């Protein structure tokens, strides 16, 4: 394998993983942008979506990608319920209380998963089937490519939704100025419910999309959610397109960092870039205009 | 007044328990207490349970065949300690069991916990016969009371390199270069260090040295680096999930090598490795210990064990079983439970009996190996390969039940 191909491989794998990171981060960013809530339960929700995919495949024998029609609505409803009954009562409270609450939800969900499904890891990948293709010496893993394309489609349609539809514009308005939004007759409480639901649905979709190449266990969310926080901050808090591009950057950085430096350092490089961004461009690489970027 | 009464009751209660337990200790003059210290609860509870099964099984056998004959048929009794997987609790459990009258201790599976618990045994001058724990440094502190029948991590590493060379000679397809890829915690790194040293000493060229965090979702760039280095043999040191990810990525990227040889790779021995990889797991090598399938006594023991408990006679049970017999053997020769006499007997241990030495090694005899004291000089590992979905011993020939497949089939021809 030539040096050129190795680098190309790094770029391809990095971009494909980056697409998934983006979708996770976009949900987080939307929730923050609209409600100002830092949702620590995001990773736990992703884990729930992964288990939903696993069990649906296990019991109904569905194609893993088809389970997206189950996970996305389910996670939307779950997110909306969490918002309605847990987040809403503390919206006016101190930020610390909100953080503790979402952290508490995360810990509770994870422990329930531990009790119900034990710490074993599970996967929907069937045995020895390989699905990939090569361009030159560069391998494209099909599940990751599908995941990337799906994620791209989700982000683009979310963006169109936020810019072109009445509901999307209301979400935008609420994120810019909730009192102003109320004045022009937007039901902000309902908007929050929907925004949290959509944010959870995004992470639900990403949960389904990673299952064809990954395994699920109760703490799996942390694998993604730490990166997601970095991406959200790097992209400009609440900036969805910013989150999307920074997701790709983080994926690339990890992959190329693992290639040129030691694999130990691949996550460290991400943090170095993160710190540099915080130092020189604390508002994020893509300055925030509104929820739709 | 009420408070004081409560307090007095508690004190009385404690005294009562203390008196009863001391009676217990005196009444059992014909009993010799052995303390086993393993992770009985927590994330490694499964391991602790199978260790305890090994001890229980051996003790029942020994007692049923007349106990320790030189001590008038004294019976062995097992005291249980729970480390919860934590070094500091391992230490306090060792102290507790010694206070309860344990004459010999055994444990603890995790190197870090064993490292701490053996310190307590040494300080109290109570012999400690390790069941499992592979870090070299446990025996490199000049301790007198601590013994290991298992191989150490450096011994496993040097055997791995040796076997890669001898497998090459045996099959006529010699490996000229190796690459190691390992997860970056103490487990992966210490084995990798041993492998690097051994490869250098035994003249095998190392073309790549790659580490990665085991909770990664993607190993493509690591495998791309491996592919660019084009090694003959890849040596992975992984846990289960990252091991599966690694093999799958190697297959995805069509990286064909003579062989993939794990070095004491716990990921490859996990049943879910074969289950989730199916045909891709096939032909994976692993250099590990196991009970000696070419020893009829070992096979019979395994069968009895499996009939009794309904579970596989796994490695943890095997080592606990052997440790218990080593202790019984020393007690028999010492003719006393006095710690100095037992210590002397342990030092003189020389077990060749195939009924006790059910491991693929010449025997059990403690001595100095490198900087390690009281290490079993015969400790051995063998090579297993996954053939037809089962781990089969394939090398060296005297312990093998099947011939090795070397070089392995290309991914696309499977």
Radius of gyration of chain A: 19 Å
**Helix share bin of chain A:** over 70%
Q: Which fold name fills CATH's third level, the topology of chain A?
A: ABC transporter involved in vitamin B12 uptake, BtuC
The total count of strands of chain B amounts to 14
Summary of the model, kept short:
With 293 residues, chain A is mainly alpha-helical. Chain A is 71% helix and 3% strand.
SSE order and pairing:
The complex is a heterodimer of chains A (293) and B (414).
Chain A: H1 3-35, H2 42-60, H3 68-87, H4 95-117, E1 132-135, E2 138-141, H5 142-164, H6 166-176, H7 178-183, H8 188-210, H9 222-234, H10 240-260, H11 266-280
Antiparallel strand pairs in A: 1-2
Helix pairs in contact in A: 1-5, 1-8, 1-9, 1-10, 2-3, 2-4, 2-8, 3-8, 5-6, 5-8, 6-8, 9-10, 9-11, 10-11
Chain B: H1 2-27, E1 31-38, H2 45-64, E2 75-82, H3 87-99, E3 104-107, H4 111-124, E4 128-130, E5 146-148, H5 153-171, E6 177-183, H6 186-201, E7 205-212, H7 220-229, E8 233-237, H8 240-252, E9 259-263, H9 266-269, H10 271-277, E10 285-288, H11 296-309, H12 315-334, H13 339-347, E11 366-369, E12 372-376, E13 382-387, E14 390-395
Parallel strand pairs in B: 1-2, 1-3, 3-4, 4-5, 6-7, 6-8, 8-9, 9-10
Antiparallel strand pairs in B: 10-13, 11-12, 13-14
């Amino acid at each position: 394998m030539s040096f050129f191909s190795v680098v190309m491989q790094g770029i391809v794998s990095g971009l494909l993983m980056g697409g998934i990171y983006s979708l996770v981060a976009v949900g987080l960013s939307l929730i923050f942008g609209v409600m100002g809530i830092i949702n620590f339960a995001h990773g736990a929700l992703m884990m729930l979506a992964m288990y939903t995919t696993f069990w649906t495949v296990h019991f109904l024998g569905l194609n893993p990608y088809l389970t997206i029609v189950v996970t996305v609505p389910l996670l939307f409803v779950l997110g909306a319920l969490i918002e309605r009954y847990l987040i809403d009562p503390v919206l006016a409270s101190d930020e610390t209380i909100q953080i503790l609450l979402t952290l508490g939800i995360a810990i509770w969900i994870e422990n329930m998963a531990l009790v119900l499904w034990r710490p074993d890891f599970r996967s929907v990948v069937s045995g020895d089937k390989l699905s990939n293709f090569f361009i030159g010496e560069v391998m494209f893993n099909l599940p990751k490519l599908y995941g990337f394309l799906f994620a791209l489609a989700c982000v683009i349609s979310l963006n169109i939704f936020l810019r072109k539809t009445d509901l999307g514009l209301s979400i935008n308005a609420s994120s810019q100025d909730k009192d102003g939004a109320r004045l022009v007759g937007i039901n902000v409480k309902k908007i929050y419910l929907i925004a949290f639901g959509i944010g959870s649905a995004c992470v639900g979709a990403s949960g389904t999309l990673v299952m064809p190449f990954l395994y699920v266990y109760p703490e799996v969310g942390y694998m993604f959610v730490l990166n997601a926080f970095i991406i959200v901050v790097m992209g400009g808090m609440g900036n969805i397109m910013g989150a999307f591009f920074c997701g790709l950057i983080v994926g690339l950085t990890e992959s190329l960092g693992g290639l040129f430096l030691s694999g130990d350092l691949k996550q460290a490089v991400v943090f170095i870039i993160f710190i540099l961004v915080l130092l020189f461009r604390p508002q994020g690489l893509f300055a925030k205009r509104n929820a739709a970027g | 007044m009420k408070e004081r009464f409560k307090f007095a009751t508690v004190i009385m209660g404690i005294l009562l328990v203390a008196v009863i337990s001391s009676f217990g200790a005196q009444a059992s003059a014909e009993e010799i207490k052995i303390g086993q210290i393993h992770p009985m609860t927590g994330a490694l509870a499964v391991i602790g349970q199978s260790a305890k099964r090994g001890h229980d099984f051996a003790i029942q056998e020994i007692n049923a065949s007349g106990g320790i004959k030189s001590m008038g048929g004294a019976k062995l009794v097992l005291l249980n300690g729970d480390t919860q997987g934590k070094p500091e609790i391992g230490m306090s459990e060792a102290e507790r069991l010694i206070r309860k009258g344990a004459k010999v201790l055994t444990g603890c599976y995790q190197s870090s916990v064993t490292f701490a618990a053996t310190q307590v045994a040494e300080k109290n001058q109570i012999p400690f016969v390790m069941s499992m724990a592979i870090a070299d440094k446990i025996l490199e502190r000049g301790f007198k009371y601590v013994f290991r029948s298992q191989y150490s991590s450096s011994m496993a590493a040097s055997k791995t390199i040796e076997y890669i060379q001898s497998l090459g000679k045996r099959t006529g397809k010699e490996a000229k270069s190796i690459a190691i890829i390992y997860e970056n915690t103490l487990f992966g790194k210490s084995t990798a260090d041993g492998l690097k040293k051994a490869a250098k000493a035994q003249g095998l060229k190392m073309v790549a040295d790659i580490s990665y965090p085991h909770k990664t979702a993607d190993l493509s760039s690591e495998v791309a680096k491996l592919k660019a280095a084009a090694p003959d043999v890849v040596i992975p040191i992984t846990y289960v999930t990252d091991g599966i990810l690694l093999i799958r990525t190697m297959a995805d990227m069509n990286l064909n090598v003579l062989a993939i040889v794990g070095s004491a790779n716990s990921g490859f021995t996990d049943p879910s490795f074969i289950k989730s990889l199916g045909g891709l797991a096939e032909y994976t090598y692993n250099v590990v210990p196991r009970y000696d399938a070419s020893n009829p006594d070992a096979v019979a023991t395994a069968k009895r064990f499996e009939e009794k408990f309904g579970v596989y006679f796994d490695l943890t049970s095997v080592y606990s079983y052997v440790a218990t017999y080593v202790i019984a053997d020393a007690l028999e020769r010492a003719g006393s439970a006095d710690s100095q006499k037992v210590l002397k007997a342990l030092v003189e241990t020389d077990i060749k009996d195939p009924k006790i030495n059910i491991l693929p090694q010449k025997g059990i005899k403690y001595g100095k190996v490198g900087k390690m004291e009281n290490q079993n000089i015969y400790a051995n590992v063998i090579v297993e390969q996954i053939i037809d979905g089962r781990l089969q011993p394939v090398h060296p020939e005297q312990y093998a039940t099947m011939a090795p497949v070397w070089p392995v089939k290309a991914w696309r021809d499977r």
